[in-house]
Amino acid sequence: MSARVSAVPSTQPLPNRRRLGDRLGDLGLHGLTGAATAAAGVLLGAIAWKIFDIASPAISKFGFAFITRQGWDAVHSKFGALDLIWGTALTSFLALLIATPISIAIGLYLSELAPRGARTVIASLVELLAAIPSVVLGLWGILVLGPFVGTDLEPWLHRHLGFIPLFDGSPQNAGILVAVLVLTIMIVPITSSICRELFLGVPTELEQGAFALGATRWEMVRGVVLPYTRTGVSAAVILGLGRAVGEAIAVTQVIGAGHGIHWSLFATGDTLASKIAGEYQGAATNIQIASLVYLAAILLVISLLVNLTAQFIARRFSHERGGGS
Asked: How many CA atoms lie within 13 A of 230 on its CB side?
């Protein structure tokens, strides 16, 4: 009887013979990435500490009332942030209200409807808007957009929608509406690019399954693409809001530097960022400088809250897509 050779592979573990270079590489990778992460945290903490340290005289003098007080009088050293917070909120949210449907439409067109050969070209052109320096966009707002708004758009809105407080007042070339439109142009490239990537990430099987059940393209988009990406799109919109809240130069050039809380989009106004950009270099007293940096502290807190909200939504989106409970 011939001996039978066993074909079962040996279960003995292979010796661990990692080279010294591999071990050093692991240690170097951990050290480098850990140092980069720690440096980012330290830098953020240092920026926040310096801002609150310089703003401390205004914080001590005005306290929380600084946030709820109107008016900015550098001559009599009476400062308040409520007008600027209102201007920031109004311009940012209106710009977001206009930019969100446009961004979603661009993302859907580039991911679902555009000819395959034209998608890359059109996407590159849209993303090039994000590469335009804000000062150049603000200059375009002064030379082109402002005269168009003051001569054509605002008179038309006042004539047809003047009964709404938003469109009441005297048309002019600078004001809140021009700032809203400039911010819209700045938000669209960022938000539309993220939306496009989200829509491209929808599994093809889900889309083809909807078509197989007799759905039209619109029904597929409404029933599959948008529900699948709704949380990610929400995060993209909030990131766009953060971009609008922190914009300074372009808004300073077109908003008109007005004071007070106005409902009319035709009035001039100011925001937290534009006030800092427009007045810091010419600040004459220490309390004025501290008050401007107090505005920067408020803006920093708002920006951090916006970004943390976007990260929370993005994590929720990943958790849901991964099937977490």
From this structure: 8
What does the pLDDT average to over 76-88?
Answer: 89
Q: Looking at this protein, which amino acid is placed at residue 218?
A: W
Collect all residues with Cβ–Cβ distance below 8 Å to 95 and sequence separation of at least 6.
180, 181, 183, 184, 186, 187, 244
78, β-bridge pairs: 73
- Is a pLDDT exceeding 90 seen at residue 119? no
**If you write DSSP's letter for every residue of 23-49 in order, what string do you get?**
HHHHHHHHHHHHHHHHHHHHHHHHHHH
Give me the chain's average pLDDT, please: 84
- Backbone dihedral region for residue 5 (phi beyond 0: left; psi -120 to 50: alpha; all else: beta): beta
- What does residue 7 show for φ and ψ, rounded to 5 degrees? -95, 5
CA 119/CA 19 separation, integer angstroms: 47
Task: Write the DSSP string, 64-81.
Answer: THHHH---EETTTTEE-S
pTM: 0.82
Both tokens assigned to 121: 């070209």
Pick from 100, 94, 98, 101: which is nearest to 239 by CA? 100
φ/ψ of 63, rounded to 5, equals 65, -150
What residue ranges define each of the domains in the chain, with the CATH number in brackets? 65-320 (1.10.3720.10)
Mean pLDDT, residues 150-165: 90
The rounded distance, in Å, linking the Cα atoms of 22 and 24 is: 5
